[in-house]
Amino acid sequence: MNIDLHSLLLFVMASFILVIMPGPNTLYVITRGITQGKKAAMISACGASLGDLLYAIAAVLGLTVILQTSATAYGVVKICGALYMLYTGIQIIRKNDKVVDSSEIQADKTNRDLFVKGFLTAALNPKTAIFFVSFFPQFIDSSSDYAAYTMLLYGVIFFILGLIVLSIYAQASSLIRQWLIVKQNVYQYFRWLTGTIFVGIGIRLIVTDQR
After folding, report:
1. Which of 16, 44, 25 is nearest to 122 (CA)?
2. 156-208 tens-digit pLDDT
3. Cα–Cα distance between 152 and 156 in angstroms, integer?
4. Could you tell me if 159 and 52 are in contact, meaning their C-beta atoms sit under 8 angstroms apart?
5. 139-142 contacts: CB < 8 A, separation 24 or more?
6. Whole-model pTM?
7. Do residues 62 and 136 touch, judged by C-beta distance below 8 A?
8. For site-directed labelling of 92, which of 28, 50, 113, 142 has its Cα 20 to 30 A away?
9. CB atoms within 10 A of CB 1
């Protein structure tokens, strides 16, 4: 399999610019880092990145074309994603907690819960699927016999870049957390802000018809 190094370099540069832009995944990881610490943020980052990788694999298999062409399939995923975003936002707003030391975090904050919620944040966003279908082919020779393998390789690269960037956000948010432990009033504003943003994302998914 021959890889066009020029196209690969352009893809890596474009992907890096895209993954550093704040989105639901970034917001979720930062929220976990500030409220629960670096470990929780890293687990959430792994889940969110895997959600993106799932769509990349689906793009290779052609499954995301269904979301692009079927209004019903797209609508179902969009509504599920919107409801999950609304649920997440409302939970953040309603949860009148404080930033605490890692040793004080409740036992029910399991690693599995963090991973699954991070995964759902990415997997229930149908615009991610449409993004992969429209973005990847720009860097791939569709006439090549290895087009599908190249797209899969690019999907893995995007996954790795996304995980690296989210890990950096996780580290940064854990540092902010140390400051918020003694600035609880600031944390309450952050909680309301992030919850409102998630609710806004959910509402936008419901009301918009653009793909």
Report:
1. 25
2. 888 999 999 999 999 988 888 777 665 666 667 777 887 888 788 788 777 86
3. 6
4. yes
5. 139/7, 139/8, 139/10, 139/11, 139/14, 140/7, 141/4
6. 0.71
7. no
8. 50
9. 9
